[in-house]
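2024-03-11 09:14:02 INFO worker-7 job=invfold-0412 stage=load source=structure_tokens
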């Protein structure tokens, strides 16, 4: 009787906790949708921030996150491949895994301050490259962990079969192991991209912001997240409406990427 009662209490508390969490999430999404809907118009997609638009900061955010992905994904994947395929039981691999886990949980503002001291202060000012490096650093441990986990799910028999057919270890990894784990790897990359495209703190200390459109990363660079932060602090209603519009756009973007990772790349059940 006591066990049944305890079970009911735990189920009730768990359900209540889930409902509370979902309620806050729905509250945020509904508020952003309502405020963002009334603030979004085509004008903000066709003009820059200096003319009360968001075109330059949206494009700038994608450029920063895109270049960070080009840098961070190969580094993270190669590190994950080494951990799982070459140094799986070595002490060095255990140290790298632990450091990667620590980096995944590190506050993004700490990464921003680190990059500020290394790539901003010595170069005399904020610049887009520093923002790219900060975002890439945030991506790398996510990709490392995902790659390591996905490769661990590939059956060892596939590797042994490839080697038995005369393929080298590198060929087995590239043509068999990575191919078998490609859905999980793509999902990890998209999740890492969704993580960094919504970051604000690292960019505040690195790329800062720019009201004008620019492709040059050697100076302050426009970004949507930092613009939202600044616009929300301005007293004018126009600036605050732009902040709501930018928040809604960013939220929908991150939500869309996460939905892709959950459904489009979800492994199909075998019939």
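2024-03-11 09:14:09 INFO worker-7 stage=emit residues=271
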């Amino acid at each position: 009787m006591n066990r049944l009662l305890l079970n009911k209490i735990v189920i009730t508390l768990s359900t209540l906790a889930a409902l509370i969490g979902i309620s806050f999430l729905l509250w945020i999404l509904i508020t952003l949708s309502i405020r963002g809907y009334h603030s979004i118009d085509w004008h903000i997609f066709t003009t820059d921030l200096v003319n009360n638009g968001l075109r330059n900061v949206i494009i700038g955010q994608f450029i920063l996150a895109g270049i960070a992905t080009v840098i961070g994904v190969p580094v993270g994947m190669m590190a994950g491949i080494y951990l799982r395929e070459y140094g799986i039981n070595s002490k060095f691999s255990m140290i790298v895994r632990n450091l990667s886990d620590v980096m995944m949980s590190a506050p993004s503002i700490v990464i921003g301050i680190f990059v500020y001291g290394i790539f901003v202060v010595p170069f005399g000012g904020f610049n887009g490259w520093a923002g790219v490096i900060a975002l890439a650093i945030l991506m790398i441990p996510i990709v490392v962990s995902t790659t390591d986990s996905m490769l661990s799910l590939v059956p060892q028999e596939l590797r042994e079969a490839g080697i038995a057919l005369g393929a080298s270890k590198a060929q087995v990894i590239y043509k068999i192991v990575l191919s078998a784990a490609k859905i999980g790897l793509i999902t990890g990359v998209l999740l890492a991209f969704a993580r960094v495209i919504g970051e604000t703190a690292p960019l505040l200390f690195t790329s800062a912001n720019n009201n004008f459109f620019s492709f040059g990363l050697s100076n302050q660079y426009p970004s949507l997240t930092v613009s939202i932060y600044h616009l929300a602090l301005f007293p004018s209603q126009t600036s605050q409406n732009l902040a709501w519009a930018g928040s809604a756009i960013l939220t929908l973007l991150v939500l869309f990427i996460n939905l892709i990772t959950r459904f489009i790349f979800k492994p199909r059940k075998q019939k």
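2024-03-11 09:14:09 INFO worker-7 stage=report msg="Residues 2-39 form the longest helix (38 residues)."
2024-03-11 09:14:10 INFO worker-7 job finished
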